[in-house]
Design brief:
By secondary structure, this protein is α/β, with parallel strands linked by helices. The protein is 33% helix and 26% strand. It has 6 helices and 12 strands. The longest helix is centred in the first third of the chain and has 26 residues.
Length: 238
């Protein structure tokens, strides 16, 4: 029987390659981490410091360089990060050069609720504590204390998307009946918005009223604008 030495050589080389790859992979797992790389993927200013994120990642370790790759449980790290009240979502990974990476999406506050203590309302309609690191410039909600601000969240999100309303509205006052009044940045004018419904129509009506009275230099003659009556804008003079 003739022996095919080429087949034997290729088989031998294949075994050597598998052994080398396995050895390299094991050595890589046993290596310590080199550094931490943290990226905030949202557009907000940081509501949580990098040092606080580091502590959530490495916990009781002295530093990241004392952590062996093989001991990492990435899912647990992600859960710790997402348990922080400032963080909406997190992805943790290890790069080929030995860095522990974290991509973090922070929660996005769209209003501040006057309460005891004050808190933010985020874009998901959930409570968010104030940050000791950064104060968001968002409208202030006053008036009736509500455990469910879902309907108000809908209005706030529409304000966020409208450049004119976003630059003009600095506050929302909620009456016990659920009626909402808007507070403006530049004028001492109450805007009685009503319930958070027919939002686009009410925005359009208010912007038309504002443009006309501002051009005629008459806007400061009014103390109240009521948007609750269909396509009419009912304005009350001072």
């Amino acid at each position: 029987m003739k022996i095919n030495w080429w087949i034997i050589k290729f088989a031998f080389l294949g075994i050597v390659m598998v052994l080398l790859l396995g050895f390299s992979k094991r050595r890589n797992k046993e290596r310590n981490l080199e550094k931490i790389s943290i990226e905030f993927i949202d557009e907000n200013e940081p509501f949580i410091t990098l040092s606080a994120v580091n502590k959530l990642l490495i916990q009781n370790a002295d530093s990241v360089t004392s952590i062996v790759k093989e001991t990492l449980v990435l899912n647990e790290m992600e859960q710790r990060l997402e348990g922080n009240p400032m963080i909406r979502d997190a992805e943790v990974f290890v790069t080929v050069d030995g860095a522990l990476g974290a991509r973090i999406e922070q929660r996005n506050p769209i209003a501040r609720v006057a309460s005891t203590p004050d808190y933010y309302l985020d874009e998901d309609g959930k409570k968010m504590p104030l940050s000791a690191v950064y104060t968001a410039r968002v409208p202030l909600i006053t008036g009736k204390s509500q455990s469910d601000l879902t309907e108000v969240t809908k209005l706030l999100l529409e304000i966020e998307k409208d450049d004119f309303m976003k630059s003009s509205v600095v506050g929302l006052h909620i009456e016990p009946t659920g009626i909402i009044e808007l507070r403006l940045r530049m004028h001492d004018l109450r805007v009685r918005f009503g319930k958070p419904e027919d939002i686009a129509r009410k925005f359009q009506n208010f912007k038309a009223f504002y443009k006309k009275t501002n051009q005629d230099d008459l806007i400061n003659n009014y103390k109240l604008v009521d948007l609750q009556f269909g396509n009419q804008v009912v304005a009350t003079k001072k």
